[in-house]
Amino acid sequence: QYDKIGAVFNCAGAMAEGLFINQSLEDFQKVAAAKISRTWELVQQLQKHPDTHLVLFSSAAAVFGGLGQGL
């Protein structure tokens, strides 16, 4: 039985094709929504565990796009 959560890593995300600078507002909102909504859910759940660390992770691919994706 585990009684304590030491840390939670939020690596949630989505990707849109192409470079960030070429994205529409709609594309950005779709990609950002996954990270923002999951982060908020984690914040709410972790209020029950005040000594737990929340680590947010994001990839440079979210800004620069993935190599080989038809940029």
Please describe what this structure looks like:
The structure is a single chain. With 71 residues, the protein is α+β, with helices and mostly antiparallel strands.
Strand content: 5-15%
Q: What is the approximate shape?
A: elongated
Percentage of residues assigned to helices: 25-40%
**Low-pLDDT runs:** none
Trace the largest sheet across and list its strands.
Answer: 1-2
- Note the main sheet: 2 strands, parallel
Question: Overall mean pLDDT score?
Answer: 77
Given the helix and strand composition, which structural class is it? alpha+beta
> Rounded to an integer, what's the Rg over CA atoms?
15 Å
Distance between the termini: 48 Å
SSE order, as H and E? Answer: EHEH
Question: Helical segment tally?
Answer: 2
Q: Please count the beta strands (DSSP E, at least 2 residues each).
A: 2
Record keyword descriptors for this entry.
single chain; 71 residues; alpha+beta; two-stranded parallel ribbon; 2 strands
Helix and strand layout, with pairings?
Blueprint: E1 7-10, H1 25-46, E2 53-56, H2 61-64
Parallel strand pairs: 1-2
Summarize the model shown.
Helices cover 37% and strands 11% of the residues. The protein is built from 2 helices and 2 strands; from the N terminus they run E-H-E-H.
